[in-house]
Target: ABC transporter domain-containing protein
Amino acid sequence: TVLLEVKDLKAVIAESKQMVLRGINLTIREGEVHAIMGKNGSGKSTFSKVLVGHPDYEVVGGSVEFKGQNLLDMDPEERSHGGLFMSFQSPVEIPGVSNIDFLQMACNARRKKRGLPEFSPIEFFGFLQPKLSAVNMDPKFLNRNVNEGFSGGEKKRNEILQLAVLEADLAILDEIDSGLDVDALQDVAKAVNALLTPSNSILMITHYRRLLDYISPTYIHIMEDGKIVKTGDVSLAEQLEREGYRGISAA
Ligand code: ADP
Ligand code: MG
Ligand code: MG
Model:
């Protein structure tokens, strides 16, 4: 089943009207992992932000369907409740709110929107246990304030836990590898892999190939100047490593 269908998507920066996305085409089906790679400034983050409805950007052409619905008609909250999740390059700290309270609030808000009964604290704790072990997170992080004093790797892992709790259909992970050492990267990748099911999908964005050693994508796309200029399998990442982005665009 097709989860996300992007057709000739064009977007400008709202303030300056500068064109950033120049006609993106992408189809993501259930169970697939897609990686978008590209040089700095090629429009990767803009694409992910446009998908979640970031107000800095204006869509000026094309269409996006998510689970058969017009995504561009939905506000950011509806997109999120509809099953779209995006990780942030720098997750916010929330002083005075414990991680578990935050997760429970987010989870119950989602359940309410979906017409499901809210979890009591005890029910939520039960729901959380397998997810905690899937992402291999120490339960002591539940009682700490959201992201406060977390290391880079702990923040990323906490985001993967949020993703698990929200049971998103499509998770957009923008440079979850940035600033992580190899050990932390492996942990985060393991957490992501543990969440993959035949019915959810991941769109991961990365500048470097390293992440793809741990989360193996179904497809790799190369973005250049606001367009996907090439799509392939892992061999494309290998070619990239040999020839650089310049070699790929020349081909
Ligand atoms: P990437 O994530 O691939 O590094 P971005 O999507 O962040 O690239 O940026 C694409 C281009 O659009 C860059 O030239 C960037 O400077 C510009 N850009 C993106 N968002 C904004 C914004 N809010 N204001 C001004 N310029 C922006
Ligand atoms: Mg960048
Ligand atoms: Mg970026």
Remarks:
- The chain has one domain: 2-250.
- The mean pLDDT is 91.
- The domain at 2-250 is CATH 3.40.50.300 (Rossmann fold).
- The pocket of magnesium ion (ligand 3) is lined by residues 44-45 (CB under 6 Å).
